[in-house]
Amino acid sequence: MNIHRPVMLLCATLPLHVGSISAAQAAAPRPITAVPVFEQWRETVHRGNDELLTAGLGIDALRSAAAPAFSKPARPTADEARRRAIWSSWRGIADLTPGGGFGDVYGSLQAVPGREFSAYARIDGARQPHRVLVQVPDNFDASRRCLVVAASSGSRGIYGAIAVAGSWGLAHGCAVAYTDKGAGSDYYDLDAKTGFQDDGTPASQSALAFVPAGTAATQGIAFKHAHSGDNPEADWGRHLLQALQFGLQVLDRAYPESAPFTAANTRTLGVGVSNGGGAVLRAAEIDGDWFDAMVAGEPNVSVAGAPPLYDFVTQAALLMPCALLAEDDLPQPPMSAQAVPVWTQRCAMLKSAGLVQGDDATAQARSVRQLLLDAGLSADALRAGAFSTGFDLWRAIAVTYSSAYGRYGAGEHPCAYSFSAAGADGTPAPAEMRATWWSEGSGIPPGSGVVLVDGNATGAEADPLRGLNCLRALGNGDSADARRVRAGIAAATAKAPRRGVPIVVIHGIDDGLVPISMTSDRYVPFARKAGAQIAYWRVNHAQHFDSLLGFPDYRKRYVPLLPYLYAALDQVWGHLEDPAHALPKDALIQPTPRAEAPLLREQLSIPAAQAIPSR
């Protein structure tokens, strides 16, 4: 049962103002509020058949491709929206297939009764708030207080890190704090003028989590990462810190007899993967003893002096469909008979534009492949990037991030891209579809019925390369828009972490979405030069998406990355419990994919925890 209890409302409405800004304003750092005010507190109780970790679904329902049903498809209850969001978040991050090892070899899916507290937080100067949520298990021990803090991966909603932080933290009796880090699935339908409330239910009249303001667009879909008027990536570390601060305030409220809870008297661990891992490393920059240790998996992080990841993403969006034709052994999906002519056509377009060499598709593909290898992408990462190519992720990411970096509103993208859920006849998406967005949206369309619209690829002079070249020029051109976008990219560049906080960075060598050579391989030496206490685990046969191991061809090639996150947390925890246990050390890990056999722990080759030799 989920019991809603009214809590003091600090601010019933959230003023939303989006306007044009200069490049200098986009790059300017924002101050950190020492004690943020959290708005619209909400507390719910989750016990019995509706607990914290799986919303009572358990492994079988999480594995099911059928989403938990809404009793009224267009008007889900808050409980139903939450349950489906947790179902979607688990399936998007973890490999839950039988034999995959989750719940047996690593991770926990045991039911965890407890309470949830949620609110909105706001970075100083931000136009839009971000969601924060804390899960407090009933077995929380105030005498051994601990708080795990996580940011969602990708641009996912507030439960986006539940498989990363919830599984480990709740099993250890810790409270777990989450943030959507200024992105999330609070889509707004400009046609129907509807969005989502704080409880994830759709509405049009009441206070909504996100309403785009200051935009001339009256049609299509707006979503927070792209259209908030902020540059969320520049503040990922601050978002994570505010989630920690909210967690401490929640514990004060949940256990007033044991208050105050502070970073000095509560063990605090930061953890995240992908964009969430980037948030962890950005939080490590912030002065103050906020975190006792931090674990970052496959982090999206860029350092000064090296090309940003946006440069690679726009290059991949343009070139990879052609380059993959030169590969004989791509993981499946997405390669299909339908993909070959489309990718061959891309080669011909690139040749016509003078961007590649070769007289036929085979030679052109080899030429393009070499361009990507020369840019620093490994052959294994290129093959793993086939998934992102087949499902058009490169272009969607480039459009979303350039919009955020330049702080463009809906309908204002300089490369004429937009998002829509209208049908072929132009009618808005049905209410039944819109009702699923908060629960199932990834935070970066396309998906869940929302499509990416290329304004350059319609009409008699349609040219799909025009938009792709425009996206690339925003990162390396000299127009006013390019300078504006590059200022946003510069604001998101990582700085050195403060000394003294133990950090573990874990990255798959075959990562095709956030390539290790362009992120962690650059960040770790940079951090060490600044004196950081950092361990680096490089994992062979690991790509970016554990959930893809549900496909037979992927589990023949790759191992999951989550076991290494949990193992690093275990070892860091052991050290904090007893300093005689050493912190993790650098490791080049050589695991064995399971293929069709059940995964065994020894196949993962997880580095063993070590004790500090006695003198």
Structural class: alpha/beta
- Biggest β-sheet: strands ordered side by side in the sheet: 1-2-3-4-6-5-11-12-15-16-17
Task: Enumerate the spans where pLDDT stays under 50 for 5 or more consecutive residues.
Answer: 1-31
* Percentage of residues in helical conformation: 25-40%
Shape: globular
The overall strand count is: 17
Using only C-alpha atoms, the radius of gyration works out to 23 Å
Strand percentage: 5-15%
Averaged pLDDT, please?
92
Distance between the termini: 55 Å
Q: In this structure, how is the largest beta sheet organized?
A: 11 strands, mixed
Number of helices: 21
Summarize the structure.
With 615 residues, the protein is of the alpha/beta class.
